[in-house]
Amino acid sequence: MTSEKVLGPLTLLRQRWGAALFERVAGSDGPAKRARIHGLPGPRWFSEDRPIRRVHADAAMFVGGLRALLLQSLHPLAMAAVAAHSGYRGDPWGRLQRTSTFLAVTTFGTASDAQDAVATVRRVHQKVRGSIRDGRTYRASDPHLLGWVHVAEVDSFLRCHQQYGAVPLDDDACDAYIDDMARIGTALGVVDPPRDRAELGARLAAYRSELQGTPEARAAARFLLLDPPVPVVARVPYAFLASAAVAELPVWARWPLRLPYLPVAEATAVRLGGHGIVGAIRWAMTAPAQADGPDRS
Predict the structure, then answer these.
(1) Whether 58 contacts 159, CB under 8 Å
(2) Cβ atoms of 198 and 155 closer than 8 Å
(3) Going by C-beta distance under 8 Å and a sequence separation of 6 or more, which residues neighbour residue 235?
(4) Number of domains in the chain
(5) Which of 13, 86, 227, 250 has a beta carbon 3.0–4.6 Å from 82's, enabling a disulfide?
(6) Distance in angstroms (rounded) separating the CA atoms of residues 70 and 254
(7) Per-residue model confidence (pLDDT) at position 30
(8) What's the pLDDT tens digit per position in 223-255?
């Protein structure tokens, strides 16, 4: 008996959709990387009960990652570095795969693999430098810029998990997640990263005076939201993700990027659509392994 007859069409659809999504975010060698990350014996930076594992394993990260990119783009120096050196337009999926692999290795992988991943990123950062129109210079290894990228990610991942995660964190776990992320931030070169929600809010507020909607930032927002590198059949689901990400941005971040603020729609239709698409992704990405025949458990 073929595996298709054993599993049934709905399970096969779930597996195939999940495999396609996984390949998009992890690359063609994703299964091999996953096997190493989760299967290699050895100590980890984070134990199985740590909040960072719950947050980073949830499909809400699809919304959180997009929100983080939009928020990060508001710092002119950080955005200039991304525009000039990241290749996000020419190879957007490659950039996504590198980022998702880094998060997976540092969250779930062995301590030695996590340290190697951090060392690789730090070597790349040393080469990324330049200047912007007003003459200011940037270095990707600048602890101040690293701090902005870090707090924008932490705030985005946590906020979107609390809105769209399968099991939101309680108050203590929210602070513990920020503390977990501080370990990764410190390893990357962030100086004194925030360790609870009060510190995270204060650090975000401290960057406000440096943020602005540059032409590069608005171009990145248009690319991410209106012209994404996804197949036509995926445009509608992606639109739900994009709308959910925009709705989780603070109001002060909308106008610089020329993004709308529609509180009634965001609290109803956008949130409903966001829960629907995140739930569908979660369902697909947790598909059971395919059996080879009726006698395999």
Answers:
(1) no
(2) no
(3) 228
(4) 1
(5) 86
(6) 9
(7) 82
(8) 999 988 887 878 899 999 999 999 999 999 999
Task: Supply the DSSP symbol for 259.
Answer: -
Of the candidates 284, 296, 295, which has an alpha carbon nearest to the alpha carbon of residue 19?
284
Report how far residue 297's alpha carbon sits from residue 274's, in angstroms, rounded to the nearest whole number.
35
Q: What is the residue type of 89?
A: R
Length of the chain: 297
Q: Please tell me the distance from the alpha carbon of residue 259 to that of residue 218, in angstroms, as a whole number.
A: 9
The answer to whether residue 33 sits within a structural domain is yes
Residues whose CB falls within 8 Å of the CB of residue 104, separated by 6 or more in sequence, listed in order: 26, 33, 34, 37, 56
Residue 146 placed within a domain: yes
Q: CB–CB of 169/51 below 8 Å?
A: yes
Contacts of 221 (CB under 8 A, 6+ apart): 70, 73, 257, 258, 259
Residue 213 lies in a domain: yes
Q: Give the domain range for residue 39.
A: 24-285
**Mean of pLDDT over the chain:** 90
What is residue 283's three-state secondary structure? helix
